[in-house]
């Protein structure tokens, strides 16, 4: 249920008035695939490679938000990044050196960068929504901005978005 609420929230708040062919892939996987253990707390916990294509040529910046709407304590923010230069086409696996000008926000764990998925053992599958936004401006926010402030700053400035959903279930 939380997964559907998170998806509906994302679509309701950020769906642009038009859609084009922007696409996002995570770790080279198709939407609905299982996130490899490598990117979770059960292994190295590296951030996955994220690639995109056909971003709006009008974009002034890009933003990425990764959430787990299935977490028992409410939606978990695994990653949020903004002011990614519009010429950027990917974020590499385990990235620590972000493109110049990129701002990396705090995840739910209070750290900057990727928070490796770590759902409770034997819990049902958790879904991880990777959403890339093209924006008509750079966001005037600091790295300490909350995700709510991030979402509010994006409101009305989203040119397009692309989503990929992966899942993970611990053994």
What does this structure look like?
The protein is globular and about 45 Å long. It has one domain: Phosphatidylethanolamine-binding Protein. The protein has about 170 residues and is an alpha+beta fold. Mean pLDDT is about 90; it is low at about 10-20. A hairpin with a 7-residue loop joins strand 3 and strand 4. Helices cover about 10% and strands about 30% of the residues. It starts with a helix and ends with a strand. The protein contains two helices and eight strands; from the N terminus they run H-E-E-E-E-E-E-E-H-E.
Name some characteristics of this structure:
Phosphatidylethanolamine-binding Protein; alpha+beta; 171 residues; globular; 3-stranded antiparallel sheet
Short recap of the structure:
By secondary structure, the chain is an alpha+beta fold. The protein has helices at about 1-15, 145-155; strands at about 25, 50-55, 60-70, 75-85, 90, 105, 125-135, 160-170.
What percentage of residues falls in helices of 4 or more residues?
A: 10-25%
Q: Tell the overall outline.
A: globular
The assigned structural class equals alpha+beta
Tell me what the CATH architecture is. Answer: Alpha-Beta Complex
Question: Residue ranges: pLDDT <50 for 5 or more in a row?
Answer: 11-19
Spatial extent as radius of gyration: 15 Å
Q: Which CATH C-level class is it? A: Alpha Beta
How many β-strand runs?
A: 8
> So how many helices?
2
Order of helices and strands: HEEEEEEEHE
Mean pLDDT: 90
């Amino acid at each position: 249920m939380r997964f559907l609420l998170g998806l509906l929230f994302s679509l309701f708040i950020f769906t642009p008035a038009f859609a084009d062919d922007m696409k996002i892939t995570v770790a080279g996987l198709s939407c609905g695939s299982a996130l490899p253990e490598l990117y979770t707390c059960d292994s190295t916990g590296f951030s996955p490679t994220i690639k995109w294509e056909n971003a709006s040529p009008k974009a002034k910046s890009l933003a990425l938000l990764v959430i787990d709407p299935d977490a028992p304590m409410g939606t978990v923010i695994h990653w949020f990044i903004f002011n990614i230069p519009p010429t950027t086409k990917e974020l590499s696996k385990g990235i620590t050196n972000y493109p110049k000008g990129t701002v990396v926000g705090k995840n739910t764990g209070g750290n900057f960068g990727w928070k490796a998925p770590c759902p409770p053992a034997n819990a049902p599958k958790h879904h991880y929504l990777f959403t890339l936004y093209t924006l008509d401006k750079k966001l005037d926010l600091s790295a300490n901005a909350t995700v709510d402030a991030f979402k509010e700053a994006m409101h009305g400035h989203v040119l397009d978005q692309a989503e990929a959903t992966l899942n993970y279930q611990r053994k």
